[in-house]
Amino acid sequence: MTASLLITGVSGYTGAEACRYFASKGYSVTGMVRKARESAEGVCYAACDLLCKEEMNRLIETQKPDYILHLAGDNHAGDSWQRPLGVLETNVNGTLNLMEAVRRYSPATRILVAGSMIDYDPCKMESPNHPYGVTKYLQTFTAKCWGHLYDMDIVIARPSNLIGPGDSSGICALLASKLVEMEHGPGKGKLEIHNLKSQRDFLDVRDVVRAYEILLLKGKSLQDYSIGSGVSRTLGEVAENLVKLTDAEVEVSHSLEEAEAPFLVDCSKMESLGWSPGITFQQSMKDILAYYRSRSC
């Protein structure tokens, strides 16, 4: 029997890749969107506003999916400084609306909630990093609480910085798109990076979607799983790798070079389930550039 999967946030970067992947694997995929659209590429779209309890209840009561991959939310740390309450409402209240709908109408559904590696963990950090980090911590915290309180099947994923082809607002995509503009420009261009020594763990979005499937099938309920490459890279290294892949004349400028501790991700729990990254950082860089070059034609 074909497993049914509801994916929230399908208009986003990871959501679009998740739809392609799970449809290709034979799942019966429903993509939750705000405005109705026609089905395409093996995905049936359902219009539903995550912040509307009535719409969320109707969707879950109708669908009763085997699995839910919850990717919807506000995922830009920078924007969260300007509109913290809006980000909080979407990431926390929206998730609770989903939890409540499943609790009431489809309690057997397994839910995978995609949190963030850069959330604010009060047990490890003295002060919050940004409003976004607070909202992502509260999102996964409340989801796990609902799982414990109401005996729901909920798994938490905590991915690192995602890269790869597709429409992304991440640093790698921003740098790659600027490089492609320079390739068509009249002269020397400039890449501006605030801190060349800022550290990140970068993972290809295609690898994280594979990890999500494994967690839906094998993850332990009410457990957290960190997902990353296990390699910490500086933004200077990112820029260097991208510049090597272009013939454009590029100058890399920066405001400071302030050393940061390596951003280390423990992926041992994912490895115990048989997952490991399959796409190299260099291949991801090539694919990002290829994507933006294809859009510029």
UniProtKB/TrEMBL annotation:
Domain of life: Bacteria
InterPro entries named in the record: Epimerase_deHydtase (IPR001509), NAD(P)-bd_dom_sf (IPR036291)
Domain NAD-dependent epimerase/dehydratase, chain residue ranges per copy: 6-228
Family: Belongs to the NAD(P)-dependent epimerase/dehydratase family.
Name the UniProt record assigns to this protein: NAD-dependent epimerase/dehydratase family protein
